[in-house]
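no rush on this but wanted to send it before i forget. what follows is a protein written twice so to speak, once as letters and once as structure tokens for the fold. mainly i need to know what kind of three dimensional shape the backbone takes. thanks a lot i owe you, the record is right below.
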Amino acid sequence: MRKTALITGVAGQDGSYLSELLISKGYDVHGIVRRNSVPENQDSRIKGMGITTHYGDLLDPYSLTRILQEVNPDEVYNLGAQSHVRISFDVPSFTIQTNALGVLNLLEAVRQFNPKIKVYQASSSEMFGNTVDEDGYQRKTTPMNPTSPYGCAKVMGYNLMRHYRAAYGMHCCNGILFNHESPRRGSNFVTNKIVKGAVEIHKGLRNELALGNLDASRDWGHSKDYVRAMHMLLNNEEPSDWVVATGESRTIRQMCETTFAHLDMDYREYVTVDPQYFRPQELDFLRGDSSEIREKLGWKPEYTFESMVEEMVDHWSELV
């Protein structure tokens, strides 16, 4: 029987790749979009895919109830969020409302409409903050000490999913996804900021690239790999929480080195450090232990860090 999926944040990086994946599996895909005064920007990633979109907002419970009634989904993927960690320091109240209370609004709407709907929550490695286990990894048992309003809100959303699973028997799953990138990542995120900046320098359109903390280290994977994990973990028989990560960590400096090297350049000649891009509280290191999802569900990434960066460089080289 044909399944129906509803995706919040459908127009984002993960939403677009997840939509492609689900459509390839025969799903009817519906997505929630917020009204944008420039609609061309709103659907640029998902145009022509055959997705049915609905205007709604995680902060408007009535819109969520209406959309659930119209769509009657089998699965709901909550990817909608204020997704920029650095900006969460500038708009902390909006971030908390959207990323925490928005989860509550969605869970309540699902519970009251049909508690048998499977719900996926986009949890984040930012929840761990600077807490790292002795072996240098972060996993479900690692204490969560977030270092940003974004991370704090994600911890609440994570715990709400666990609460609704325990209290109401709902099929609620958290995907604790570590950083994941692609050509569809917004250019105000550091990875595509680096790639786009390097390509522009290579083409003679600018002379330098200003960044923040070059020594911050992240576990980077590709969004395509991570949306496969979302679908796999949500469709596991027993609802649970899962870490999705490559298990490798690299610094922003190493990201610059790899990116510029693809263009036969030395990043040290062009990259500068600007204090305005530092966070009020820095998150130094992230590296995830995804052994559970690899062993139990058979997930593993198809992209390497180098192939991901190469794809991003090729994309911006064609676009610029």
Observations:
- The mean pLDDT is 96.
- The radius of gyration is 19 Å.
- The longest helix spans residues 92-113.
